[in-house]
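Query protein
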Amino acid sequence: MVLLKFRSNFNNLNISTKEKNCIGFCFNLSISKIEVYLPISYNKIITIENEYGDIEINNFPDATFELEEESGNVHILIANKVIVENEYGDVVLDTIKDANIEVSAGDIKINKVDNIIANNKYGDIEIVDVNNYLNLT
């Protein structure tokens, strides 16, 4: 069972999921898939909190994403600004203006970014093209 919360105010859309805990022997467990459709012109802040499972985001050139991922991969094609905190999983970004990425265990792969701050404790960082600012730790 998945607990799903949507909260929205003037400039922010919040989406959070929480899987029901399993104690002892658990059968028929599956990770839920949640799809949210928004217009490509959406230009507000989207906050996603996810415990388990991948996050995939397509083409939102004007939107800002704030992602908290416990365990799973993050893949974003196009966005204005991205803030990612990921404990266990890879972060793959295609074309982003501003990015602030924090990964505990996983790789960071970025194709094109204008400004980036990235911290990766146990994994690789691969960036193809940086147009302005780069700070890696």
Q: What stands out?
A: Strands lie at 2-8, 12-19, 45-52, 55-71, 74-88, 91-105, 108-122, 125-136.
